[in-house]
Design goal:
This protein is an alpha/beta fold and 173 residues long. The chain contains 6 helices and 5 strands; from the N terminus they run αββαααβαβαβ. Helix 6 links the parallel strand 4 and strand 5. Helix 5 crosses helix 6. It is globular.
């Protein structure tokens, strides 16, 4: 990661997903992707602060939300991010159709829309590095390769700059 930070000129976008799968209930399914844009020199500080808040390297918001203590930690994290004026947060969302059981189409829609929005512009402040959590290969075989295919299609269509780099990594990194 340090090499990627060193070689990118602009800020870095850290991307994560959230979704509610279609169930046999009246809940409305959705798929969303959110990016937090951080100055390339701020990534280590932000990561350290966000690890200090829960006091652990492991964090999963879905699990934490199930307990009152976890909800308090979530609020502290949100307050930290929201209070930092130098961060930008961008979210895109789509519906999950019942004929999209692996949510592959929904993910492609969100990743494409988010990447185009994040990487607009040509100045030194334009995002050219996107860091995305690797997909669990047991649950989503070929998931990272599918994401790479979406990015290649955006490049080929001229929808994003050729210098845009998407790096998949494990949550621990």
């Amino acid at each position: 990661m340090a090499e990627l930070y060193r070689t990118t000129a602009g800020p870095v976008a850290f991307i994560d997903e959230s979704y509610r799968e279609p169930l046999n209930s009246d809940e409305r399914p959705f798929y969303s992707m959110t990016a937090v844009i951080v100055g390339r020199d701020q990534g280590a500080l932000v990561r350290d602060v966000l690890m200090d808040i829960p006091g652990s390297r492991y964090w999963h918001t879905t699990d934490a939300y199930r307990t009152p203590a976890g909800k308090r930690v979530i609020k502290k994290m949100i307050d930290y991010i929201a209070g930092a004026a130098e961060f930008n947060i961008v979210t895109v969302q789509t519906q999950i159709r019942r004929d999209d059981p692996g949510m592959k189409t929904a993910r492609h829609e969100c990743l494409g829309a988010l990447t185009k929005e994040l990487t607009r512009g040509a100045s030194e402040n334009a995002v050219r590095l996107l860091v995305v959590e690797s997909r669990n290969a047991n649950v989503h075989p070929g998931g990272d390769a599918d994401d790479a295919r979406v990015i290649r299609q955006l490049r080929s269509a001229g929808s994003i700059d050729r210098a845009v780099h998407v790096h998949h990594t494990s949550p621990g990194k």
